[in-house]
Amino acid sequence: MDIRAAAELDWGLPPIDPAQVGVGALVVVGAYILGRVLEVALRAYWRWRGRSPSFATVFAMLAKWLLVIIGAGAGLTIAFPSVRPVDVLGGLGVVSIAAGIAFQQVLGNLFAGVILLVREPFRGGDQVAIADVRGTVLSINLRETLVRTFDGRRVVIPNSVVHDGVITVQTGYEQVRTSVVVGVAYDADLELARDVALAAMDDLPAVAADPAPEALVVELGPSTVNLELRFWSGARQLETLAARSQVITAVVAAYTEHGIAMPADIRVIEPSPALERTLTRLRPDDAPAG
């Protein structure tokens, strides 16, 4: 069979028009370009509306790829008229079902990521506690949440874990309350101890004036009467630690200045029978004469 005869064979394929293929390719390229423009515009719009950077980035990207997929389908239909959109959608449906069965955990993280981004219980830059992880949120994407712990480690948490777990957003409000327990001697003047503690906490740079600090008698310890010093400060981790440090330093100095004793706890140690027998053998009365 010569080349001319092979070219004249009917392979059962629909005719391909190079012009239509070119137009279809242009449609796909145009859809991609429009998708990039739409992504930039939506990201800027959502940031202008006050949404988080993670929300703006992820949903702008999703809008871009949705437009690209629609453009690719349109380009495929133009390039190959025999390919109907219904057939393409049917094939995508079968592929989607298979992918859903094979990648259940991945899809669970994706859907959890969408819910987190829409609801925004926290944003990038917030300080949170998720399970045993405590730190600052770097970003939220469709699959995981990135957290930098307070000691500088990068932790990747699947979105399904974040969505199903208990989340403490430390920076959810501007201020948080911290407490310090201090013990004074039983013979100390408790009213004076309270007044001195309150005066020591006043005007500390890291302690908020409103709500005002409090000093409450909360417990009778083995050797001390315990006071709980409550105060408010900025919500960030470093701000709470700085306020706690300033309060302890100021109150200890004030109690020392006013002669208010802060005795150590008394601990009672009961000797074991073996120790009692040993002490009995070592008594001076039992020692041999020299």
Give a quick rundown of the structure.
This protein is α+β, with helices and mostly antiparallel strands and 290 residues long. The protein is built from nine helices and eight strands. A hairpin with a 2-residue loop joins β1 and β2.
Topology at a glance:
Blueprint: H1 3-8, H2 18-48, H3 53-79, H4 85-102, H5 104-119, E1 127-130, E2 133-140, E3 144-149, E4 154-158, H6 159-164, E5 167-169, E6 175-184, H7 190-201, E7 214-220, E8 225-234, H8 237-257, H9 273-281
Antiparallel strand pairs: 1-2, 1-5, 2-3, 3-4, 6-8, 7-8
Helix pairs in contact: 2-3, 7-8
Overview of this protein structure:
This protein is 50% helix and 18% strand. The protein has 290 residues and is α+β, with helices and mostly antiparallel strands. The strands form 2 sheets. Strands 4-3-2-1-5 form a 5-stranded antiparallel β-sheet. A hairpin with a 3-residue loop joins β2 (133-140) and β3. α2 packs antiparallel against α3 and α7 packs across α8 (237-257). The radius of gyration is 36 Å and the shape is elongated.
